[in-house]
Amino acid sequence: MKIRKIMTAATAAVLAFGVLTGCGNSETQTTVAATETVKETIEAAGEELSGSISMSGSTSMEKLANALCESFMEKYPDVNVTVEFTGSSAGIESVLSGKCDIGNSSRNLKDEEKSAGAVENIVAIDGIAVALDTNNTVTDLTKDQLTAIYTGEIKNWKDLGGQNMPIVVVGREAGSGTRSAFEEILKIEEQCAYANELDSTGAVMAKVASTPGAIGYVSLDAVDDSVIAANLEGVEANAENIKAGDYFLSRPFVMATNGEIDTQSDLVKTFFEYVYSAEGQKIAASVGLITVE
Q1: Burial category of 283 from C-beta neighbours within 10 Å (exposed 0-12, middle 13-18, buried 19 and up)
Q2: For a surface tag, which of 56, 75, 197, 205 has the fewest beta carbons within 10 Å of its beta carbon?
Q3: Structure confidence by residue, pLDDT tens digits, 163-172
Q4: Where do the domains of the chain lie?
């Protein structure tokens, strides 16, 4: 990659500089000069990086994608990164058809997607929170209870020790990565009895927050005080418990490419280097995700 070559040249220049000046100057002077040489070289590389990157896909990845793109464009002002939030399946379709450079997916790629050339690049791990309206007195659910709720076997909160109130089952639309991951983990694909199928994380949050007796699933980083995040099997939904493997609802955040990363453009490769860097992973952590360092 061009930038990596420039960095190598910069390192060589620093070493040469140290050899040439080592006899006549102090170690401090040599170090300062060498640091400035590297800094100038990196800045020059940044200025030369230009062009555009397009991403499309998961609405659950909105916070992460926006944060990474904004930070990357600050680092490289001549680069423009655009993101559309169309759902995981649509994002994979777009990257495979060449409509975008990166397809964001909040689920593992399907075998048929991989067979078509999509490569699964996991950039962070997300927990799926089970959201309840704030007046619900049932705040802990087992895996079996959650399964029974979503398949329509349990229809009233009184059957779980709560109020005599119908359960309003809220979920995402077909093609949503959150829905796919949720149903796959519970092994209830095509068995759910949804009262509402909504097309974004924000819509699920709003519906649950405003509907007595509602239950929905959302990306963990989307949870705020407008809902209750239920404990599952007595385990709180947080990053520490997901890392420990104690919280069973979790899924990968994927930035898929058509072919391996090293076959992409220099610009896309540089973006992935940034995503996997300490700085990029710090951004993932800052929006409530688990890093893949």
Answers
A1: buried
A2: 75
A3: 999 999 999 9
A4: 2-48, 52-124+252-286, 126-250
pLDDT in tens, 233-280: 999 999 889 888 899 999 999 999 999 999 999 999 999 999 999 999
C-alpha–C-alpha distance, residues 4 and 49, integer Å: 12
The Cα-based distances of 231 to 139, 153, 241, 244, 249 in angstroms read: 6, 20, 11, 15, 11
Residue 114: both structure tokens together: 């991989």
Distance of alpha carbon 290 from alpha carbon 153, whole angstroms: 33
Q: Quick one: which of 42, 4, 53, 8 has its CA closest to 267?
A: 53
Q: Where are the beta strands (DSSP E) in the chain?
A: 51-57, 79-85, 102-105, 118-119, 122-133, 140-141, 168-172, 196-198, 214-219, 227-229, 231-232, 250-258
Domain 126-250: which topology? D-Maltodextrin-Binding Protein; domain 2 (3.40.190)
Model confidence pTM above 0.70? no
Fold of 52-124+252-286: D-Maltodextrin-Binding Protein; domain 2 (3.40.190)
* Residue found by looking up tokens 């974004």 in the block: 200
